[in-house]
Design a protein that fits this description.
Blueprint (H helix, E strand, L loop, with lengths): L7 E4 L3 E3 L6 E3 L7 E4 L3 H12 L4 E4 L3 H11 L5 E4 L2 H6 L6 E4 L5 H10 L8 E4 L5 H12 L4 E8 L1 H7 L2 E5 L2 H14 L2 E2 L2 E2 L9 H30 L4 H11 L7 H10 L23 H12 L4 H13 L2 H10 L12 H34 L5 H7 L10 H11 L10 H24 L4 H13 L6 H12 L3 E2 L6 E2 L5
Length: about 500
């Protein structure tokens, strides 16, 4: 409510924001456990989650309405405050201060840090909770370390609901400083079998890097689900209700996961303005925010193949050429067909095995990238820890992650999930399903690049001899780039012509 001076009284027991001067009347200073800058939906939900676990929280937003919204939604939480003034915000925090930025990646992060810096002291901690590009995190880490301030890049996965009731959290930075954050993060994170879905991951930008690869895996799985949806509708000629039922049933099998679960829910939603299911009214031009692309780009820098993730990024890009695709659909005609005589249940069961095979391959590619990145960037990642904290809260959570955790428990240095005997044997038994699925899709003219990439990755990885010896010979022919021999050591050059 407004008082006679025009001030907006958010909550009398916390503080009063003066809308014009942004000065505050505050009863107590230096008594809040945690601060959040950026009070959009994610920031507010995380703040409320923290308050639910008996920690005092102060939020800061430039917009007085967003600052007020935190207090309105906090209801009877007496330990929640908010402000629009950075000096007051910092002054409300216990030392060493722990502040989390929930602002868009890029320049807004640097601008927010610059705003806070004049009021911070040595030993204070800033946590970037956005999807920042990991080299930016490394730069900020070093810049703030020189000022005696600890900087963490922390991936937060789970969306709005996760932030409110338990996300998966992936922090990286100074290990000793993490102890100031650990009790809060462990309390608010998702729990699986009583274990918190958060842990200290490693040095520097380790947290942002792990979240980036998490999102790359997410891209791959979403593309595989979309291709599966296409096969069910156009290949098997199932109606919308039957397709929805397939995904709902699959969520009680080895495919149980958040993405399969929400696919069933998405397919069950009807449009409010027509008798159609809403998904049929949604444009097929897909958007992205860059994390999938970053995963592919750095995988290439590290020379780690992630072809399923690459295919997913490419398909989102290709989807944007809508007008060209419509034109091509009328000109580039495929008259082929696949005769399908099998029972629907047989087809669906085979497709289930094919999708499982491809999804596990996608996880394998992303986790292999993390293994190489850990050595290259000196992160010190523990992949058992990563698969453990991905089991709950995050977008790629699935029942399979417990199997992956056990694989890394058996061999912490496992370079690739496919080399784990249990997982490898399971995929070997299911490979016929994905081969048959791809052959059928080819005959029908359905695009399944993520399925193809997953199988090609599997086949290439299990090949003791690849035809790349010919590539080496060609390179030496036209550029004298040298080659290695199979029968002796060293590099060699030959006159091929």
């Amino acid at each position: 409510m407004n008082d006679e001076s025009g001030s907006l009284n958010f909550r009398h027991h916390c503080l009063i924001i003066k809308c014009k001067s942004k000065n505050l009347t505050i009863k107590e200073m230096n008594n809040h456990d945690f601060g959040i800058v950026g009070l959009g939906v994610m920031g507010r939900n995380l703040g409320l989650n923290i308050a639910d676990h008996s920690f005092s929280v102060v939020g800061m937003a430039r917009d007085p309405k967003k600052a007020a919204a935190l207090l309105t939604e906090a209801e009877d939480h007496m330990q929640v405050s908010s402000t629009t003034d950075p000096a007051t915000f910092v002054g409300l925090l216990k030392t060493p201060r722990a502040i989390m930025l929930m602002v868009p990646a890029g320049d807004p992060v640097d601008e927010t840090i610059a705003t806070l810096l004049p009021f911070l002291g040595k030993g204070d901690i800033i946590v970037d909770g956005g999807n920042s590009y990991f080299p930016d995190t490394d730069r900020r880490f070093l810049e703030l370390e020189a000022k005696g301030i600890h900087f963490f890049g922390m991936g937060v996965s789970g969306g709005e609901n996760g932030a409110r009731f338990g996300p998966s959290m992936m922090p990286g930075g100074d290990k000793k400083a993490y102890e100031r954050l650990r009790p809060i993060f462990e309390a608010v994170s998702a729990k699986v079998n009583g274990e918190p879905c958060v842990t200290y991951l490693g040095n520097g930008s380790a947290g942002n890097y792990v979240k980036m690869v998490h999102n790359g895996i997410e891209y791959g799985i979403m593309q595989l689900i979309a291709e599966t949806y296409d096969i069910l509708k156009k290949g098997f000629k199932l109606g919308d209700a039957a397709v929805q039922e397939v995904f709902s049933n699959w969520n009680h099998t080895n495919l149980q996961s958040f993405l399969i679960e929400i696919t069933g829910k998405v397919l069950n939603k009807f449009d409010e303005d027509s008798p159609e299911r809403l998904v049929n009214m949604v444009s097929d031009v897909a958007r992205s925010k860059g994390t999938g692309k970053w995963t592919s780009q750095d995988a290439m820098n590290l020379q780690v193949p992630v072809p399923t993730i690459d295919a997913a990024v490419n398909m989102r890009d290709l989807s944007k050429y809508k007008s060209q695709r419509v034109l091509a659909s009328k000109q580039l005609i495929w008259a082929g067909n696949a005769d399908i005589f099998e029972e629907e249940s047989v087809l669906v069961n085979r497709l289930q095995d094919a999708l499982y095979f491809a999804i596990v391959n996608t996880y394998a590619q992303g986790l292999a990238q993390l293994q190489v990145a850990s050595d290259t960037y000196n992160y010190g990642l523990n992949l058992e820890d990563i698969t453990r904290i991905w089991r709950g809260g995050c977008i790629i959570r699935s029942v399979s992650l417990e199997d992956f955790r056990k694989a890394y428990q058996r061999d912490p240095k496992l370079p690739n999930l496919l080399l784990d005997t249990v997982i490898g044997n399971d995929l070997s038994a299911k490979q016929a399903a994905i081969r048959d699925t791809i052959k059928m899709a080819i005959d029908l003219g359905l695009p399944v690049p993520a399925y193809m990439a997953s199988l090609s990755y599997f086949d290439a990885y299990r090949s003791a001899a690849l035809p790349t010896n010919l590539i080496q010979a060609q390179r030496d022919f036209f550029g004298a780039h040298l080659y290695e021999r199979t029968d002796r050591e060293g590099t060699h050059h030959s006159q091929w012509d």
